[in-house]
Amino acid sequence: MMEKTELVTRLKEIAGEGNVFTGTETEPFLSEPRGRWTGKAAAVVRPGTTEEVAAILKIASETGTPVVPQGGNTGLVGGQIPDMSGTAVILSTARLNRIRDIDPDGNTITVEAGVVLQAVQEAADAHDRLFPLSLGSQGSCQIGGNLSTNAGGTGALAHGVARDLCLGLEVVLPTGEILDDLNKLKKDNTGYNLRNLFIGAEGTLGVITAAVLKLFPKPAGRATAFVALPSPAEALALFARARGEAGNGLTAFELMARIGVEFSVRHIEGVRDPLGEHHPWYVLMEISSGQSEEDARGKLEAVLEYGLEDGLVLDAAIAESYAQHADFWRLREGMSESQKPEGGSIKHDISVPVDSVPDFLAEADKAVLAIEPGSRICAFGHLGDGNIHYNISQPVGADRKVFLQLAEVITPAVHGIVRAHGGSISAEHGIGQMKRAELAETKQPVALDLMRRIKKAFDPAGIMNPGKVL
Ligand code: FAD
């Protein structure tokens, strides 16, 4: 490995003096928002072009220097944080922040990896188009990070996950070679789909530097309701009805347990309970229409009417203004943040087949409450994708540290139930450092072996984000 001072000198020659940080300047890049993982780095470098990324990776390959790509640093599994050895270089994509092209007729936008998700949404909106990827972290996370984690979010129901929204990629390989696959083609059957290997690879195969993303027509109308229900089983029946009524126009169907609504109301400024009364479960449902507001509203009302008649729906509020629509969403988006002041939380980001969600929830609740009876189970998420954030807050008054130690028994119990339903232990956040051991224990051996062979073929020197995923 190269001497640190020589490495820093060479990085400065490539990216410029002001774009290489060492010592205390690296601190903002060394931990993530939840404060769960902390690392050390020899340096942080912020390249401004694809060619600079290529030159950095070439040196890293030659010198065996580990490289940790970092986008908006909002990842929830520690993938963007280096280990404690202090040997790694963090490659921040913050300066790769240009929108290279927007083609409203062809419904594409070509952006560099460091463009913040919200900026892509805004650029699309300015051209009367929709970029449907939508996450609670959209003001900070970047497209490179979204693709590398194959992010999901609330828009996945109608438009798919990040992978489904990407037509082309530009990637720098660990050797410094540039793979230019920035095509705009819907149809391209010319061999293996290399792009899909980098999407969801969490920076272990190369650095994504730019992407061609799909845009969609902006809906002409949208109607949103906040709905109370007796249980997840009724929510599932209502989902089937809403899908039947609106098809792909059903643009959100977010399930929330009562306790999550209480947390959000208690801790997120300006959030209030739209229904006022205590109900066991809620759904935030949104229907969009290519035709008009009236069409969206008509469909939403038809679904609710059916739900009320059939006893699926206990009560519902329809947003009468954009402000009210935004209030409903703030309540839902505040659900992660509002768990923090409630003490320790053991979190799971799981998916099961959609029709298994009610059984999964019942079985997991039973298992968790048998282990720690006072646990407050704050389950919420994207019911229509079978993706539940199955989070468990500590009992009121419990010792945080002692409760968090229970993750050693609670998580295997929850994940065991997930697997019994044919589900996934990481629906949208990835593996990172957090679930690496569990991946090794649970992934089919043939699949794991293939992943290792792919890693070896792409990154023979093993410099790309070591200690993550595999
Ligand atoms: P980072 O955190 O910087 O990096 C994530 C991973 O990608 C790391 O392994 C990193 O090494 C790698 N990486 C980053 N950039 C590149 C690149 N250019 N090339 C190669 N590898 C790279 N996620 C969801 O899926 N759905 C949600 O609904 C959701 N909601 C969230 C809400 C909140 C409040 C928060 C804090 C997070 C949420 N997340 C969600 C998780 C997170 O925002 C996503 O994983 C996001 O895609 C990460 O993007 P980032 O730019 O912050 O990436």
Please give the structural blueprint.
Elements: H1 4-15, E1 20-21, E2 43-45, H2 50-63, E3 67-70, E4 89-92, E5 99-103, E6 108-112, H3 117-126, E7 129-130, H4 143-148, H5 156-159, E8 166-172, E9 178-181, H6 195-198, E10 207-214, E11 216-217, E12 221-229, H7 232-246, E13 250-257, H8 258-267, E14 281-289, H9 293-309, E15 315-318, H10 322-333, E16 345-346, E17 349-351, H11 357-371, E18 376-382, E19 387-393, H12 400-405, H13 407-420, H14 436-442, H15 445-458
Parallel strand pairs: 2-4, 3-4
Antiparallel strand pairs: 1-2, 5-6, 6-10, 7-11, 8-9, 8-10, 12-14, 12-15, 13-14, 13-18, 16-19, 17-19, 18-19
Distance between the termini: 23 Å
**What is the arithmetic mean of pLDDT?**
96
Basic shape:
globular
The CATH architecture assignment of the domain at 99-217 turns out to be 2-Layer Sandwich
Helicity range: 25-40%
Rg is 23 Å
Q: Name every ligand kind in the structure.
A: flavin-adenine dinucleotide
Provide the low-confidence segments as ranges: none
Biggest sheet details: 8 strands, antiparallel
Q: How large is the count of helical segments? A: 15
How large is the share of residues in beta strands? Answer: 15-25%
Level-1 CATH class name of the domain at 99-217:
Alpha Beta
**Structural class estimated from helices and strands:** alpha+beta
Strands, total number: 19
Q: Provide the CATH topology of the domain at 99-217.
A: Uridine Diphospho-n-acetylenolpyruvylglucosamine Reductase, domain 3
Question: Can you walk through the features of this model?
Answer:
Residues 37-218 form the FAD-binding PCMH-type domain. GO terms for molecular function: catalytic activity; FAD binding. Belongs to the FAD-binding oxidoreductase/transferase type 4 family. This is FAD-binding oxidoreductase. It is a single chain. The protein has 470 residues and is α+β, with helices and mostly antiparallel strands. Among the domains are: 99-217, 2-Layer Sandwich (Uridine Diphospho-n-acetylenolpyruvylglucosamine Reductase, domain 3); 221-333, Alpha-Beta Plaits; 343-428, Alpha-Beta Plaits. 34% of the residues lie in helices and 20% in strands. It has 15 helices and 19 strands. Strands 12, 13, 14, 15, 16, 17, 18 and 19 form an 8-stranded antiparallel sheet that branches. The protein has a 5-stranded antiparallel sheet with strand order 5-6-10-8-9. Strands 1-2-4-3 form a 4-stranded mixed sheet. α1 runs antiparallel to α2 (50-63). The protein is globular. The two termini are 23 Å apart. The model has no long low-confidence stretch (mean pLDDT 96). Bound molecules: flavin-adenine dinucleotide. Residues 33, 68-76, 79-80, 93, 113, 135-137, 141-142, 144-146, 148-149, 151-153, 202-203, 207-208, 336, 428-429, 432, 465, 468 line the site of flavin-adenine dinucleotide.
